[in-house]
Write a structure and sequence with these properties.
Rossmann fold, BirA Bifunctional Protein, domain 2, alpha/beta, single chain, 5-stranded mixed β-sheet, 8-stranded mixed β-sheet, elongated, RNA-binding
RNA sequence: GUGGCCGUAGCUCAAAGGUAGAGUCCGGGGUUGUGAUCCCCGUUGUUGUGGGUUCGAGUCCCAUCGGCCACCCCA
């Protein structure tokens, strides 16, 4: 029979060997645990949504995968109603708009699910067509206190501290402030997004390249240089605020943005985020379509090349396309697939357990199966994850299996041991083996496992 | 979508126009009931696909498909 070549689809290639999956799951669990610590509630939404819901914001068709059956007749295909979601924010907006009357506001939810984008994948940078996002958002009804904007850095801080992947910096900026600055430099509205995009590259590109870009957007050389200087000033956040206050640009957007930035950073400190972990950074631009106020971007201090590991911001009205109620919100997103890929590449992840089970009960004598199963049952009763080797195989092969899979303890017993009322308990790492009376097996295994942790 | 690089065993790669190989992995063995080392044996290929040049093509030429990288954008 002709075999089908086992192969994956470009960009749909994130599957792991069990050992890597365990490591991935550990990272996911850590993120979830921290979200829950702050009282965020879990939700999931369907993988596919109505096309008009997904495209309500416009401009994203290119990367959206539409749904259609393989055997669909042409007319049906043309009428495809559904498509795979490309982020978790649009589905959230739809979700909240649909359930406004049942939810408790401010609504705090976390969502950890896959999303799909038809862009060119770049494996080395952790970019795929199917990937996990971990989002938290806080949605208010009509109003939402700036204090929630200050709470977000606190969640980020707790989470990445827990991850123990080195020093990181939560860089904070404000879209209104940026808008005010551009207004001051008389950048026309139509050119604003191009200018911001250019400023967003200050970390990657040399000054000359950016000044050139600003010039081609119509800025005078002197103004461009001045703008560049302000945007790239790196100071303690208090100093940056003082500097911005001194500039005293006279427009509403600037004044309001500066006020918000001051209040949010001040409050973040009260939430316990140390000054070493955050900074005001005017070159952070982020999500031009979404955010209207505070924006965040987090990077690792020792691994700038990894880029942003978590980003988000405040928006005035989440569900304006779906509801008349004004729903302001603030949230962040972690690209988990990307984060995992990059952290693993940089060797920053803790090694995972090699198997979820700690004990392997070998089968030396198939006739004694009942006794092996009884030992395993007793261990599981005591919350010790245990596997029984059920294939008839030479004992050497069973130990090889135990070693490869990473069990910590193997239990072996045959007629000889059972005759004495004992079993052999072996620590696989140290290769030490001892006889243990049947009644004490669980207690002894538990003791060995506890010792190893310390 | 635009530009550059690359397709040989499951994986990493040799073979510079003349019989397709190595390492690794995987499987078996090294006499009674103990794994990571070592030794022996073994499986694996329409050289991405199609055409052309040649006595002869993995190698040269053309086309095509696939992959990687950069740009755009973003997680």
């Amino acid at each position: 029979m002709r075999k089908v070549r086992p192969a994956l689809l470009k960009g749909f290639d994130q599957e792991f060997l069990p050992q890597d999956q365990l490591q991935f799951d550990a990272l996911l669990d850590l993120i979830r645990r921290n979200f829950e610590r702050y009282g965020f509630l879990p939700i999931e939404t369907p993988s596919a949504e109505r096309i008009e819901v997904l495209t309500s914001k416009g401009g994203t068709e290119k990367e959206i995968y539409a749904l259609s059956r393989l055997a669909a007749p042409e007319d049906e295909e043309a009428a495809a109603k559904g498509a795979l979601r490309f982020d978790l924010t649009v589905p959230l907006a739809r979700y909240v708009a649909m359930r406004e009357r049942e939810l408790a506001f401010p609504f705090r939810r976390y969502q950890i699910q896959r999303v799909w984008r038809g862009e060119n994948p770049q494996v080395k940078r952790g970019r795929f067509r199917e990937f996990y996002q971990c989002d938290i958002d806080i949605i208010g009804r009509e109003t939402l206190s700036y204090l929630y904007e200050a709470e977000i850095p606190s969640v980020i801080y707790a989470m990445f501290k827990d991850m123990a992947i080195g020093e990181f910096c939560i860089r904070i900026n404000n879209r209104k402030l940026l808008k005010g600055i551009l207004q001051h430099f008389e950048v026309p509205e139509a050119r604003a997004s191009e200018v911001l995009r250019a400023l967003d590259k200050t970390a990657k590109e040399p000054e000359q390249a950016i000044l050139g870009e600003l010039g081609s957007q119509g800025m005078a050389a002197k103004a461009a240089a001045e703008l560049y200087r302000i945007i790239t000033a790196r100071r303690e956040s208090a100093e940056t605020l003082a500097l911005l206050t001194d500039l005293a640009y006279r427009n509403e957007s600037y004044t309001q943005g500066l006020d918000e930035l001051g209040k949010v950073t001040d409050a973040a400190r009260q939430f316990g985020v140390p000054d070493t972990a955050f900074a005001i950074d005017l070159s952070v631009v982020r999500g031009l379509d979404y955010y209207t106020g505070t924006i965040y971007e987090t990077t690792l201090s020792a691994h700038a090349d990894i880029g942003s590991i978590c980003s988000g911001g405040r928006y005035d009205d989440l569900a304006s396309y779906f509801s008349n109620t004004r729903l302001p919100g603030v949230g962040i997103s972690i690209g988990l697939s990307r984060l995992f890929a990059r952290l693993k590449e940089a060797n920053l992840l803790r090694p995972p357990p090699r198997t979820p089970a700690e004990v392997l009960v070998t089968m030396l004598d198939a006739d004694a199966l009942a006794r092996y199963l009884a030992i395993a049952a007793e261990l599981r009763e005591r919350d010790i994850n245990t596997e029984v080797y059920l294939e008839r195989a030479k004992i050497g092969k069973q130990f090889e299996y135990a070693s490869k899979k990473g069990f910590r303890i193997a239990i072996t017993a045959g007629a000889e041991e059972f005759g004495r009322g004992t079993v052999k308990v072996k620590d696989l790492a140290s290769q030490r083996e001892s006889d243990v009376p049947l009644g004490e097996v669980a207690a002894r295994v538990k003791q060995m496992l506890d010792e190893k942790v310390n």
